[in-house]
Amino acid sequence: MAQGFSDAIQGLVKELRADAPDCVAAGVVDMGTGMLLSYETVDSHPPEVLDLLAGATLDLFQGRTVVLIEDVFKERRGVANDQHYFQEILVNSANLTHLFIRMTESQDVVAVVVCRKSVNVGMLFAQARRVVKAYGL
């Protein structure tokens, strides 16, 4: 992994963590390798939970059924490129809101932002999109 890419990933995580409202954690997952490339969190988490985050992100965006849905949508809409159809996914859990956003250029890289459930979702999307766009990975 090139040093420039690694620095960009770390900068992206730091900026997401700082700029996303009510943010408690941010990270970046490489779905090609299934690895969590970088993360920052206000709490400590067992390593196995962080490993599961990468796997869950892969399932959300590229699980077998998701890929089938994407293929059907592309076929019905006459889309002939390799870009993934699903670009952002919002998940609400009991206490948290999780936003997953694919990078623009590197479709196998996903930024993850975790915020308190009380977050203004519109502001979360606006801030996270702004930061992701600025990094243009």
Describe what this molecule looks like in 3D:
Strand 3 (88-92) and strand 4 (96-102) form a beta hairpin. The mean pLDDT is 91. This protein has four helices and five strands, in the order αββααβββα. Helix 1 (3-19) packs antiparallel against helix 4 and helix 2 packs parallel to helix 3 (64-77). It has one domain (3-135): Dynein light chain 2a, cytoplasmic (Beta-Lactamase, 2-Layer Sandwich). The chain has helices at 3-19, 47-62, 64-77, 121-135; strands spanning 23-30, 35-41, 88-92, 96-102, 109-116. It is globular, with a radius of gyration of 15 Å. Helices cover 45% and strands 26% of the residues. A five-stranded antiparallel β-sheet has the order 2-1-5-4-3, sandwiched between helices.
Blueprint (SSEs and pairs):
Blueprint: H1 3-19, E1 23-30, E2 35-41, H2 47-62, H3 64-77, E3 88-92, E4 96-102, E5 109-116, H4 121-135
Antiparallel strand pairs: 1-2, 1-5, 3-4, 4-5
Q: What are its keywords?
A:
single chain; 137 residues; alpha+beta; Beta-Lactamase; five-stranded antiparallel beta sheet; 5 strands
